[in-house]
Description:
- The complex is a heterodimer.
- By secondary structure, chain A is mostly helical.
- Chain A has a domain at 95-295: MetI-like (MetI-like fold, Orthogonal Bundle), CATH 1.10.3720.10.
- Chain A contains 13 helices and no strands.
- The two termini of chain A are 42 Å apart.
- Residues 1-21 of chain B have low confidence and may be disordered.
- Chain B has a domain at 27-100 and 162-251: P-loop containing nucleotide triphosphate hydrolases (Rossmann fold).
- In chain B, strand 8 (213-218) and strand 9 (221-227) form a beta hairpin.
- Chain B is built from 8 helices and 9 strands.
- Helix content of chain B is 32%, strand content 24%.
- Chain B is an alpha/beta fold.
- The chains are: A mainly alpha, B alpha/beta.
Amino acid sequence: MPETAETGLIVRHPAALTAAAPSSDAAVGTAARPPGRRRRNRHWYRLVSPVAVVGLWQAASSTGILPASKLVSPASIAHTAYTLMVTNSPTYGTLQESLLVSCERWAAGFTLGIAIAVLLAVATGLSRIGEAIADPILQALRSIPLLGLIPLFIVWFGIGELPKVLFVLLSALFPMYLNTFAGIRGVDSKLGELGQVLGLRRGEMIRHIVLPGALPQALTGLQLSVISSLLALVVGEQINATSGLGFMITQAQQFLNNSVIMVALIVYAILGLFLNGAVRLLERKALAWRHDFGK
Amino acid sequence: MAPRLREVKEHSAERALASAPDPLAPATAASVRGLSRTFGDRTVLDRLDLDIAAGEFIALIGRSGSGKSTLLRALAGLDQEVTGQLAVAGPVSVAFQEPRLVPWKKVLANVALGLRVSDPQASARNALDEVGLGERASAWPVTLSGGEAQRASLARALVREPRLLLLDEPFSALDALTRITMHRLVLSLWARHQPAVLLVTHDVDEALALADRVLVLGEGRITHSSPIALPRPRDRDHPDLVALRLRLLTELGVPAGETD
């Protein structure tokens, strides 16, 4: 092992610090957070404008200002959603079945993508050699627009599940990789020094200082990965799908059924909201030290 | 140019705890000979000599940029670029200017971090009790006041039973009242554990209140050394201290009548 192995831990960018690890002094004032009741009130307020928009939309549809051939009314979307759930039509299948297929695709691609991203980021973040080997390739790959790869993916991987899952995988991989890598490199160099003074071994330094220090930015990466992987799911699923929400959309397009398309889009949106909420929750649990949550 | 002797220092607390052979006489906590450090073409430490006796409380003062912190970092083993000879009796502990508590570890875990004793948790708890922070053991660092954070940092330094305790302006960010409390705490901890202490400070009064010996660093060397034999707690208006204060301020290049 080179002599620098011990000091080679990459904790040398004090600038990136403030975001990753607020100094305890500076953060004292921010410890108090609004209590739960105020937060719930704020959430309630946030429902007003969306509900108003849906109301106006329905009004415009009912009065005929908004023709159903352009945009169907909220009521008829709700009705279509209900019908899709209770009947198993030969054209569309059931909504819940399609959702399940889409979720499986997303989950498989996303989980693999995140796992690979984390492994790569740890390898490149902790070792200069790893960085020299892997980072140039990853930087080059991430500048390729993924959507442009679709035709090639069809040539390479056919039109089955593989290209769809791979597409989700790749789109989840890059945001997570880049942010986790930057998080590892951005860990407070002062904490690195502290670890040195406390006589931490390399493994302890990684476990107690480097990885937890990288976590806030890694979670930001996770959030971005959720967003971009859902986008990839929506696009990728429409490649010759025979099942899933994307299949419902392509079918509905052929039958000029806007209502079904709207239902599928809304389900995607709900999925997105749900997953984002899940990441936020994870963030709040994992970063309890930042605030005074989770005592 | 004279040949330079370069030693990579054996200092880490870990190695020291593992009973490394001690190159120093038992009565010496640190011995520095011909220590130099340059940053670019600026010489910050210039063939500096310093001996710290076991259990001695030294205050090191100097203008900002005089190399106080550079010397402390060299003693702590944080500077690999220094040249000269440096022998330090381990274990060495450091309390930094900012408390440097690991924000994602609760106070107790911060104190126990890297501690190699049979029951780190229990030792850490004792250390926290000693600095009066026992009931904040399970608090997040972010919730501590400045004084509490510094006490946690002191507990983390002391729990390693150092033979040399390096204090890098640890009280400079605290308000005056908290600082007085901390001075008392440091003195009582020092009396109980008897480590040698090197306190880097820019506060002449702090140096006069605490130290056995006050050193002035200037031009990269120790330019002045004054022992203080007065018993503690000291009356800051004691004639000896008043005279010494003037003397030290003159050494620091502050004209009489002007203080920071």
